[in-house]
């Protein structure tokens, strides 16, 4: 029965971590799962609590800093960004009207579905926008400082 309690606690902490994304609660979740293992092996409650405390503390002191160091974005670490990080901050050409629900933009020669970052804004084909964030395969865009006045070279057929 003790193992089930520790497993439930571990799952609750892991789910709570999803909402906080601090890499703090998940370390206690790891401790709870380790304590569940100790309980499954028949350890008394005091030993289970000790396993929970030791594994949680070691996770916080040793594992969390390593994960955080490796999860820094390329922009923060001065490295060349790649993937989605390389797209965020770049300019895009609106190909199909972009609003809060849908749209299509061209980013570095690739077509991306897009939505307006500001849900009250609508961008027409030919306008230049800046990619603020990427969620899944959709670029959230904002009016660029250098908006188009007329047709852009890339908009010509």
TrEMBL record:
Keywords: Membrane, Transmembrane, Transmembrane helix
NfeD-like C-terminal domain: residues covered: 85-142
Segments crossing the lipid bilayer: 7-35, 41-63
InterPro entries (alphabetical): Membrane_assoc_protease, NA-bd_OB-fold, NfeD-like_C
Membrane association type: Multi-pass membrane protein
Compartments, as annotated in UniProt: Membrane
Keyword Acyltransferase on entry: no
Predominant place of localization: membrane
Pfam families in the record: NfeD
PANTHER family xref list: INNER MEMBRANE PROTEIN YBBJ
Protein name (Swiss-Prot/TrEMBL): NfeD family protein
Originating species: Micromonospora parastrephiae
